[in-house]
Design goal:
Helix content: 25-40%
Number of helices: 11
Largest sheet: 8 strands, mixed
Bound molecules: iron/sulfur cluster
Radius of gyration: 21 Å
CATH architecture: 3-Layer(aba) Sandwich
Structural class: alpha/beta
């Protein structure tokens, strides 16, 4: 898994939110996504992970920076043909299966939206046949084609959203909190389905979640975001075995352990201090106000996001470049 599919270079997405006020939702983020991998992206609500996903998907124009797909820039102006090709290769699964499906449309039309947008010359029966195949692929049945979204459970609706995303054989999928709105009992089923489909169709995922324990099972690598910046990125295993950034350490220490004895001994890093307003981020490290290791250097200088050992990136002054 070393072939780069997507490269995000110094990406920024700012929003003007008032007189002389700028919300830096995504602030100079750079990373790569390899073909066939799942990159989990975690962080508190409002840290910019969904904005990052949407900017990659061209739903927002970046303020600056670049997104490259297979080495080609896709973040600027594209011709109609390039735009269509981009839509075919990259699809999105949304968080809320209740909101993301049009309640007035039948499942057949929801799932076939992608096919229709690519102007595939299918007859009515071929189109329906294709939709049935997709529904069966995600664990639904033929008789579901004529039903409306309100006739399904949350887990089933998310399966419809997945079938819609798969309709035009994408290579890359941004799954934006796809399990957060589902019952815990259903979450594992949807994650297993995504894993199965990844194996079957060699898909690459950017899997966004607010809970780091949620992404461990599905992700090859995990990135942690804080106030619009990526603060740590490494393999899932290393992230859990040897987290470096104090924010990641706090996130991991909050996960309850299944073994009652170990749980009793678990020492939790409680974050104190206040989270700065995202429209008024102070100089230096953004995590300064909550970090127990903060020094004068941290208050003055923004730490670079750098590789401290092979494949392990962190933005913290405690770890110097080797
Ligand atoms: Fe804490 Fe300083 Fe590292 Fe920021 S740079 S996380 S304040 S030690």
């Amino acid at each position: 898994m070393s072939e780069v599919l997507l490269e995000i270079k110094n990406l920024k997405k700012y929003f003007e939110v008032g007189k002389n006020q700028t919300l830096k939702a995504v602030d100079d983020v750079s990373f790569q996504i390899y073909k066939g991998e799942t990159l989990g992206l975690v962080g508190e609500s409002g840290c910019g992970k969904s904005t990052l996903g949407r900017t990659i998907m061209r739903l927002y124009h970046p303020t600056s920076g670049e997104v490259l797909y297979n080495g080609k820039t896709i973040s600027g102006h594209l011709s109609r043909g390039e735009e269509k090709e981009c839509c075919r290769k990259m699809q999105m699964i949304f968080q809320d299966p209740y909101m993301s499906l049009d309640p007035r449309m039948k499942v057949v039309d929801i799932v076939a939206e992608g096919l229709d947008s690519q102007n595939t010359a299918l007859s009515r029966s071929e189109r329906e046949e294709q939709v049935v195949k997709l529904l069966e692929m995600v664990g639904l049945q033929k008789e579901h084609v004529g039903r409306f979204p309100h006739e399904f459970s949350g887990g089933q609706r998310q399966r419809i959203g997945i079938a819609r995303a798969l309709a035009i054989n994408p290579e890359f999928i941004v799954a934006d909190e796809p399990i957060s709105a589902l019952d815990v009992s259903i979450q594992a089923q949807v994650v297993n389905l995504l894993k199965k489909l990844q194996d079957e169709f060699s898909l690459t995922y950017l899997f966004i979640a607010h809970d780091i324990s949620m992404v461990k099972y599905i992700s090859n690598r995990i990135g942690v975001m804080y106030l619009g910046s990526l603060v740590e990125l490494t393999s899932s295993q290393t992230m859990f075995d040897n987290p470096l950034h104090p924010y990641t350490q706090a996130l991991l220490s909050a996960i309850p352990l299944p073994d009652p004895k170990a749980e009793k001994k678990r020492s939790r890093v409680v974050l104190e201090g206040t989270v700065p307003s995202p429209v008024n981020i102070p100089d230096g490290c953004k995590f300064c106000s909550r970090c127990r290791y903060a020094t004068d250097e941290c208050r003055k200088t923004t730490p670079n996001f750098h590789e401290v050992e092979e494949g392990h990136w962190v933005a913290c002054h405690r770890y110097k470049k080797p």
